[in-house]
Design brief:
By secondary structure, the protein is mainly α. The protein is 63% helix and 1% strand. The chain has a domain of 101 residues: Serine Threonine Protein Phosphatase 5, Tetratricopeptide repeat (Alpha Horseshoe), CATH 1.25.40.20. The model has no long low-confidence stretch (mean pLDDT 88).
Length: 278
């Protein structure tokens, strides 16, 4: 990183002021003496402002905004970072300088991170009354409820997969009910991928809920192999109670290869009568 970026990342406003003073002094000397040599140019560019936003130094962001040029700066990156961190005052400050920014991306950034107040402001002041243009969240139920109530929601499938993969059961339940009216949703590829993600990450309660609601999986063996490879013993046990079929030897190989001792012992106890096991 440049000297300026190092200073902005840790909020060293006094140092930044000194650097700007030195730059201005050098520029003025060059003008007065009319020499062709270069003057000092500090690194007011790149990710200097983004780093300040990322580390919560709003005073530095405002100072950069008021006293330095955006010409070589990643201002859009700073704005997106502010949206992701729910920094409404900084978003309000930077938006006028970047009117061409993808406003849907900005709204989705706020929604994904669960910043409802910021999202509401973006909807009111940036989206110009558009509807059904913000993706539902796989992490924040309050955001989802507000989006649906405001007729702004879209793309529930991505949120559903995210919620399953991360084990957010209340959101999985809510999205399951929301998606229930979608034809064949419980057997579509995206729903199957979401189920696979829940198994892979060992979210047993999510797995139970999905099976209870009738989710169907074509590749039952792949699901068990994934759970075995990750060592999710309770998930493997439950899937067997639900008649998920898999090659016992291959399951044992996956568990053994990744050092899942408890799972290896259970598989051996359950299926040692299978001559193909070894």
């Amino acid at each position: 990183m440049s000297v300026v970026e190092e200073a902005t990342s840790t909020g060293q406003l006094d140092i930044l002021k000194v650097l700007l003073d030195e730059e201005n002094r050098s520029r003025e000397a060059a003008r007065l003496w009319k020499y062709d040599g270069s003057y000092i140019i500090m690194g007011w560019r790149g990710n200097d402002m983004t780093l300040a936003v990322m580390n919560g130094h709003s005073d530095v962001v405002r100072w950069l905004f008021e006293h330095t040029s955006d010409r070589r700066r990643n201002g859009v990156g700073a704005l997106i970072c502010a949206a992701g961190r729910g920094n409404l005052p900084i978003v309000q400050l930077l938006i006028p300088r970047h009117p061409w920014i993808d406003r849907h991306f900005l709204a989705n950034r706020a929604a994904t991170a669960g910043h409802l107040e910021l999202l509401q402001w973006i909807v009111e002041h940036v989206l110009d009354g558009e509807k059904n243009c913000v993706r539902l969240s796989g992490r924040h139920l309050n955001v989802n409820k507000w989006l649906v109530a405001s007729n702004l929601e879209c793309d529930a499938e991505q949120a559903f997969q995210e919620a399953c993969e991360e084990g957010h059961l209340p959101i999985v339940k809510w999205l399951t009910d929301y998606c229930a009216s979608t034809e064949n949703f419980f057997s579509c590829a995206k729903a199957e991928n979401a189920f696979y993600g829940a198994v892979y990450n060992g979210h047993l309660e999510v797995v139970k809920w999905l099976i209870k609601r009738g989710f169907s999986v074509r590749r039952t063996g792949d699901v068990i192999y994934a759970a075995a490879r990750r060592g999710h013993l309770e998930v493997v046990k439950y899937l067997h109670t639900q008649n998920f079929k898999a090659d016992h030897r291959y399951t044992l190989e996956k568990a053994a290869k990744t050092g899942r001792l408890a799972l290896v012992q259970w598989l051996w106890t359950q299926f040692k009568g299978d001559r193909r096991l070894i």
